[in-house]
Amino acid sequence: MMIRAEQVKSRIEDALPGARVRIGTFSGDDHFEAIVEAPQFSGKTRIEQHRMVYAALDGLIGGAMHALALKTVPLESD
Fold first, then answer.
1. Closest to 25 (Cα-Cα) out of 46, 8, 10
2. How many CA atoms lie within 13 A of 17 on its CB side?
3. How many CB atoms are closer than 10 A to CB 53?
4. Which of 30, 37, 66, 67 could make an S-S bridge to 75, C-beta 3.0–4.6 Å?
5. Alpha-carbon distance values, 51 to 27, 29, 78 (Å)
6. In a structure prediction context, what are the per-residue pLDDT tens digits for the chain, which is 78 residues long?
């Protein structure tokens, strides 16, 4: 099963409303890189932030998605 970058982006945006998500691919169609800025990350450790993103991608990593290089940034609400 193949997954597209748009599907990865959509899953993250659905789980983290208001997030700014940038997705790229590298080393084939199953290796992704993501930069996620989300207000939900405020006050959370980097590990907690990453867990939130991984939870949004539950079932994909290790399956259709082999690898994810992830950067998370708290997004201050306006």
1. 8
2. 0
3. 24
4. 37
5. 24, 23, 25
6. 678 889 999 999 999 999 999 999 887 777 899 999 999 999 999 999 999 999 999 888 777 788 889 999 998 865
